[in-house]
Specification:
The protein is mostly helical. The chain has one domain: Helix Hairpins (Orthogonal Bundle), CATH 1.10.287. Helix content is about 80%, strand content about 0%. The longest helix has about 30 residues. It starts with a helix and ends in a 5-residue tail after the last helix.
């Protein structure tokens, strides 16, 4: 049985990861919803994790996959904290629009 990386090729993983990362950057730059911005950050982390796992298989070293697991744990904690902050802001102010929240900096 051939390795899946030999069938598909490492360059396709690189292209997919770059595409996912660019979509995440575009989501951060052009969308002003806080939820969409959090999802875009998660998409960028998923792109980095995909590339780490692909290179880990390519080099036949498990350290990249271990790093992916730690990165996923950090991403889960980041989402929990980000959503908690958004819920607290929504309870106090009643909105989570980033453009309107910029005016609160004072």
């Amino acid at each position: 049985m051939q390795n899946i990386l030999e069938q598909i090729g490492i360059d396709n993983y690189i292209y997919l990861s770059a595409l996912l990362f660019c979509v995440g950057i575009l989501g951060i730059l052009f969308r002003r919803s806080a939820i969409v911005m959090l999802m875009s950050v998660e998409l960028m982390l998923a792109a980095a994790n995909l590339l780490l796992a692909a290179f880990s298989v390519y080099h036949q070293d498990a350290s990249g996959q271990v790093f992916v697991i730690f990165s996923m744990a950090v991403a889960a904690a980041e989402v929990a904290v980000g959503l908690a902050i958004l819920v607290a802001v929504f309870r106090n102010i009643g909105l989570i629009d980033i453009e309107k929240l910029k005016k609160l900096r004072g």
